[in-house]
């Protein structure tokens, strides 16, 4: 009887936490007062219709029978589902069922069935939390975009007459923007040529919900073209049955990657070269392809035309493209993508050569687990493995006709996330390495997560190649005002660079790397961005450090100013490389900057943007 009384007590508490708004009046029983310890729970049960008692006697000490127990438990679980209880509520109820499973069995209940039902609720809660985490990061951007659209429409409507006839004639003004972007930067290189350099854009934009068009004049002291007139735009429109047609000109990003990142299409180009007669260094960063695509939620077909050498300067000056994949440049590229049920695939084909990259992944969910097995190939003639050697010439690269990769992964999902997997890479059938890895991710709160990842890289000891270990610690805290990402990595060997024991390892072997990115929104008009990257070589005292800070102030909906400072004490840094979480690093928060140039003395940039 004591356990039955306790059971009722805990059951009342469990139901009481799933409270709902009600206007029912207070209950009145002759044998219970408002001061009684169970009064609030009984009142809550009565108001919700879970506890129905005829008469004015509660009989709280009376033992309950199997009919009462079935009724209360059923109503409780229904209430859990209807009120969408959170995880803490489910834990309380779960403990009750565990505690009194023996007594419940005597009443003819299957505790296992109830616990499975609770677990199913918990799974749904975790799925919703995961979806909310993904949406939360984009919510502020959407809100800002909506506000900008509203302000733009309001601003332009002020110049239109309120009379209906005239207003209709000038309605197109709501879709037209004239904008001016101007910035000036200064870098002290220690030479007489040190000077302020400017970049300026004046453009006319026409925007609708499904397409946009720009006519833009651009001039810059640091671009390889000192003046240009550019027409650019893109279109997204539904063509029926869930499919969307997309077209874009140059200056728009097209970035696709496979599940295990063995196939990546990135249309970003970055160049740096020197004209010997003047000693000047020219720079160029751009999303340099145009193309068309037909996509839906599960399939996508893309045709891209890359233009990495359109002015002839690239090859004439023996420039090195730092971010572009030369295997898919200066040609039409055909890309197909699929993500449907148990199959995921991405294929990239160069239209002018035999070059082909593809990855196929089979995946299968088993309750909270997901198993994935992938196979990838890079095929072509005279292609080479990423990385350079002592002489920095293409002839020193390790060439291949067929590079293949096998990946396997087992992921456990829930509030915590556990992953184990492997990757084996082969050059013409000869094994280059096998990496075994494991990671554990834990959601600290609704606004943060921490992750640890370990990699063991096994190489062929018969060839005198050593094994290495990598460690990664990543923390992400995000909220309405502050979003911070931090990572501390101990790199034994960057597995993307495995050619031999050449010069490339001076940068990609035995080092520690610290990365911090933080955005703080001071108010609706101003924000601050901070970026920091530090590489410390274990074998020497050499350090490579990138510091970035930017302040931005939105004067109003049409005027904004910014001031930023960046210092890079190392070599040119590829800012579009992937971190351990397979995200683009982007230290300076600018995806258009493919490479952060060396700037030992730092560089200051001041800019303004006006929209009319």
What are the key terms here?
single chain; 612 residues; alpha+beta; Porin; two-stranded antiparallel sheet; 9 helices
In words, what does this structure look like?
By secondary structure, this protein is α+β, with helices and mostly antiparallel strands. Helix content is 20%, strand content 45%. The protein is built from 9 helices and 28 strands. A hairpin with a 2-residue loop joins strand 12 and strand 13. Helix 1 packs across helix 2 and helix 4 runs antiparallel to helix 6. The N and C termini lie far apart (79 Å). 18% of the residues are buried. About 4% of the residues have low confidence.
Computed over alpha carbons, the radius of gyration is 31 Å
Q: Quick one: biggest sheet?
A: 22 strands, antiparallel, barrel
Task: Give me the number of helical elements.
Answer: 9
Q: End-to-end span in angstroms?
A: 79 Å
List the helices and strands and how they pair.
Blueprint: H1 2-16, H2 39-48, H3 66-83, H4 87-99, H5 101-106, H6 111-157, H7 164-169, E1 176-187, E2 196-207, E3 211-220, E4 227-240, E5 243-248, E6 255-257, E7 264-266, E8 268-275, E9 280-287, E10 289-295, E11 299-306, H8 313-316, E12 332-340, E13 343-350, E14 356-366, E15 369-384, E16 399-412, E17 416-427, E18 430-445, E19 448-458, E20 468-478, E21 482-493, H9 505-508, E22 509-521, E23 526-537, E24 543-556, E25 559-568, E26 573-574, E27 595-596, E28 599-611
Antiparallel strand pairs: 1-2, 1-28, 2-3, 3-4, 4-5, 5-10, 6-7, 8-9, 10-11, 11-12, 12-13, 13-14, 14-15, 15-16, 16-17, 17-18, 18-19, 19-20, 20-21, 21-22, 22-23, 23-24, 24-25, 25-28, 26-27
Helix pairs in contact: 1-2, 1-4, 4-6
């Amino acid at each position: 009887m004591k356990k039955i009384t306790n059971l009722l007590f805990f059951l009342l508490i469990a139901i009481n936490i799933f409270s709902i708004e009600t206007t029912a009046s207070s209950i009145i029983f002759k044998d219970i007062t408002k001061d009684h310890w169970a009064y609030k729970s009984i009142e809550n049960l009565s108001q919700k219709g879970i506890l129905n008692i005829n008469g004015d006697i509660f009989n709280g000490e009376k033992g309950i029978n199997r009919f009462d127990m079935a009724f209360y438990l059923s109503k409780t679980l229904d209430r859990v589902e209807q009120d969408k209880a959170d995880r803490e509520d489910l834990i309380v109820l779960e403990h009750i069922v565990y505690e009194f499973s023996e007594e419940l069995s005597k009443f003819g209940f299957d505790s296992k069935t109830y616990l499975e039902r609770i677990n199913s609720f918990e799974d749904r809660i975790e799925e919703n939390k995961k979806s909310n985490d993904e949406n939360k990061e984009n919510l502020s951007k959407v809100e800002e975009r909506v506000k900008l659209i509203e302000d733009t429409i309001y601003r332009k409507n002020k110049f239109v007459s309120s009379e209906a006839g005239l207003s209709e004639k000038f309605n197109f003004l709501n879709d037209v923007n004239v904008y001016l972007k101007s910035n000036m930067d200064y870098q002290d290189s220690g030479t007489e040529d040190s000077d302020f350099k400017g970049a300026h854009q004046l453009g006319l934009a026409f925007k609708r919900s499904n397409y946009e068009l720009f006519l833009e004049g651009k001039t810059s002291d640091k671009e390889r073209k000192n003046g240009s007139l550019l027409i650019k735009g893109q279109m997204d429109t539904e063509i029926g049955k869930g499919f969307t047609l997309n077209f874009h000109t140059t200056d728009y990003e097209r970035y696709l990657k496979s599940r295990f990142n063995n196939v990546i299409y990135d249309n970003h180009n970055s160049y740096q070269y020197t004209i010997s007669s003047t000693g000047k260094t020219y720079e160029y960063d751009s999303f340099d392809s145009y193309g068309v695509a037909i996509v839906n939620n599960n399939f996508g077909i893309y045709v891209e035309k890359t233009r990495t050498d359109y002015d002839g300067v690239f090859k004439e000056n023996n420039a090195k493209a730092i971010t572009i994949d030369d295997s898919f440049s200066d040609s039409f590229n055909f890309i197909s993508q699929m993500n449907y049920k148990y199959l995921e695939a991405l294929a990239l084909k160069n239209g002018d050569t035999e070059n082909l990259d593809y990855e196929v992944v089979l995946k299968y969910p088993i309750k909270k687990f997901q198993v994935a097995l992938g196979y990838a190939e890079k095929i072509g003639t005279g292609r080479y493995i990423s990385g350079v050697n002592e002489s920095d010439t293409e002839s020193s690269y390790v060439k291949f006709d067929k590079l293949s990769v096998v990946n396997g992964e087992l992921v456990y999902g829930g509030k915590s996330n556990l992953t184990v997997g492997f990757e084996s890479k082969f050059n013409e059938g000869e094994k280059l390495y096998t990496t075994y890895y494991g990671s554990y991710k834990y959601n600290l709160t609704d606004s943060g997560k921490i992750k640890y990842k370990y990699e063991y890289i096994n190489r062929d000891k018969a060839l005198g190649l050593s094994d290495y270990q990598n460690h990664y610690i990543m923390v992400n805290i995000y909220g309405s005002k502050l979003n911070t990402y931090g990572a501390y990595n101990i790199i034994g060997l960057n597995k993307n660079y495995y050619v031999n024991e050449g010069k490339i390892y001076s940068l990609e072997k035995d080092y520690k790397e610290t990365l911090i990115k933080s955005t703080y929104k001071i108010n609706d008009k101003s924000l601050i961005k901070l970026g920091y990257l530090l590489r410390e070589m274990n074998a020497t005292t050499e350090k490579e450090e990138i510091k970035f800070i930017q302040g931005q102030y939105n004067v109003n909906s049409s005027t904004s100013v910014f001031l930023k400072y960046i210092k890079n004490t190392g070599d040119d840094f590829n800012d579009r490389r992937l971190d351990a979480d397979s995200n683009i690093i982007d230290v300076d928060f600018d995806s258009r900057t493919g490479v952060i140039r060396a700037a030992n003395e730092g560089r200051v940039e001041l800019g303004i943007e006006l929209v009319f």
